[in-house]
Amino acid sequence: MLALVLVSALAARVVRRLVPFALAALPLVFSILAINTFLYPGAHDTIATWGPLAPTWTGASAALLATLRVIAFGLSAALFALTTPVDDLLVELERRGLGRRAAFVVGAAMTAVPRTLARARDVAEAQRARGLDTEGGPVRRARGLVPLAGPVVLGSLAEVEERTMALEARAFTAPGRRTLLRRLPDSGRQRAFRWAALLATAGATAASLAGVVRLP
Amino acid sequence: MSGAGLTLERVTYSYPGTRSAALRNVSLSLRPGRALGVVGANESGKTTLCLVAGGLAPAVTGGRLEGSVRVDGIEIADLPPHSLAQRCGVLLANPATALSGTAATVFEEVAFGPANLGLAAGEIVDRVCWALAVAGLESLASRDPAGLSGGQTQLVALASVLALRPRYLILDEPTSELDPAGTELVAGALSNVAAETGAGILIVEHKLDVLARLAHRMLTLEDGAVALEGGTAKLLRDPRLEALGVRVGASSERPPAASRVGGGRPLERASRVLSTEAVVPAIEMADVRFDYPGGVRALDGVSLRIEPGEALAVVGPNGSGKTTLVRHLNGLLRPSSGRVLMDGRDVRRVHVAELARRVGLAFQDPDRQLFAGRVRAEVAFGPRNLGLRGAELEERVAEALDLVGLGTEAGAHPYDLGRSRRKLLALASVLALRAPVLALDEPTTGQDARGVDRVEGVVARAAAEGRTVVAVSHDMAFVRRCFPRAIVMGEGRIVADGPPDRVLAGRR
């Protein structure tokens, strides 16, 4: 699975951009490794004993497995986010019959994080421009987050009414289907690949449930 | 009354939670193919009139409405919003919130409305191309709307409303963020739209020459009621206009084309450099280039020297790099290459917060600058960071609020003020820093006569105190009155530099 993700990332030339995601997972990875290796319940095949610490082989292998799972899962989600433009996804969802409101909600949810970050950046800039020092060491940066929270939330709420009016003024609530201007290229090979991926997933799950293959 | 037209009959409207009415007993009638101009002081009810005439108040805002608003004989409250959107196209005053935020390109943003109506793709493309051409936006069609300048965003918002081909256009200050060329383009385009498509236009506008060109009739609002009404030519000569807070002198005079200017520049520069060679400049930019992420080059080799105590205006078309330039002055943006020196120190090595003691920057969009829950807290934020407390802080806040005429609003929530007063509040929040350099990004936008007077007073006072003032502006009258020196930007470069009378000589 991890190999698949990495190969796809290579093909899409986004490996470099996956690095921050991998780094963000590091604290989690370390805690999984440490807890499993040292504290695996009922494992006795100790590797060594350092005072109260007794790492076990069982624990280490379980830790490695769990880590690989987490990384594979995290990176495949990150890969999806990096390679799928939100607008393309929404157009496709709408083409497949998702209502415009539902599509807008999906889109708003997917862009909520970057939008909130942008608003937070605006507020932070405004505060720095008026003498709030948030540059420099991590403590100072962290302190800069406190005065951000309220304005970011309130600012987003204050905009809601204007944005609602803007959407109403653009006939957003009209009944019937929206016209979709984009048509995403979707070749026979892409379709075949999607079906193959779906079948492979179903097959692997079935095989695992039936006990034929043990999936990690 | 029935028949074609957008009519308001004895309309009184109050926002929810307020006792006083924002519109009082307003009656008006707009026929297809005609244009009605609305002027008035800040907070006189102009924006509310747009919301009511466009059916957004009270439908979206809530509140209470008496009287009747009809479009082509149908009561506006009886029309579903999407059907109303095809009859009354409303352009709100704040371009930042007017866009859908879901489109990846300007083309798709403009297509958002027609696509919502489910029109055929070919029809949508025709409409979008037409609307983009009307607004002069063809060259930006494939750009990301999120990366446009303030003025460009306003043009996209206008095109987006035009693409719905409404029978009535309701426009709240459609040219406020536009340069003089853009203003002229929009004014001309709107008269064509009215003539060609037979649309009726209700337009709120501070620039009287736009109304002189476009509007058949005008009305002025005062405290939510119609004060004067009549034919445009006659009303523009009415001596009472000035008392109503209308900017009689405001115009959209064109700045010069780049090729026309620059002749006087070397001499001008040489004399200044000679006389002040020993003085460390307040601000010096040396071959500054700046690229936004995504590759748009906003500054392309800007070199500029601003002496202490100098008042400098930065003018130029929308998207020419003016805002990017002033955001370099307090370190919010750092040059991709080149250097910015503040009192001889490279700003790259100085924190923005430290620069805030030296440079107070008032942003173009007040909503990106304001964040506090009370007017007083907003203004106190800066001086508090500088270490002021107690009586000294109170005094600083009161002084700044008085300078912009908001002394009585200290306890209000910033969002309870109209946009023009939020802009003055943003200015006050910067004035309270008492920084030696004052940088203002489009300070007169959306202001009535009193608001412009206040801004001019602020600039004059700063200059008298020996502070350095740098202001980005499209308002040529303001530039001529307040600034002995102006630079003209074009495509990220300085194309002219000198006294406004020379560099702005232009067409008039």
Write the layout of secondary structure elements.
The complex is a heterodimer of chains A (216) and B (508).
Chain A: H1 2-12, H2 15-24, H3 26-39, H4 57-83, H5 86-95, H6 100-129, H7 138-169, H8 188-210
Helix pairs in contact in A: 1-4, 2-4, 3-4, 5-6, 6-7
Chain B: E1 6-14, E2 23-30, E3 35-40, H1 46-53, E4 64-71, E5 74-75, H2 81-87, E6 88-91, H3 95-98, H4 106-116, H5 121-134, H6 150-162, E7 168-172, H7 180-197, E8 200-204, H8 208-214, E9 217-222, E10 225-231, H9 232-236, H10 265-275, E11 283-291, E12 297-306, E13 311-315, H11 322-329, E14 337-342, E15 345-346, H12 352-355, E16 359-362, H13 375-385, H14 390-403, H15 419-431, E17 437-441, H16 449-464, E18 468-472, H17 476-482, E19 485-490, E20 493-498, H18 500-503
Helix pairs in contact in B: 4-5, 4-6, 5-6, 7-8, 13-14, 13-15, 14-15
**Largest sheet properties of chain B:** 6 strands, mixed
Principal-axes geometry of chain B comes out as globular
C-alpha Rg of chain B, in Å? 23 Å
Which shape of chain A, going by the Cα principal axes? flat
List the domain count of chain A as a whole number: 2
Structural category of chain B: alpha/beta
Low-confidence stretches of chain B: 256-276
Strand content of chain B: 15-25%
Number of separate strands of chain B: 20
Mean pLDDT of chain A: 79
Rounded to the nearest angstrom, the distance between the terminal CA atoms of chain A is 10 Å
Name the strands of the widest sheet of chain B in spatial order.
6-7-8-3-9-10
- Number-wise, the strands of chain A total 0
Determine the oligomeric state from the structure: heterodimer
Task: Indicate the percent of residues in helices of chain B.
Answer: 25-40%
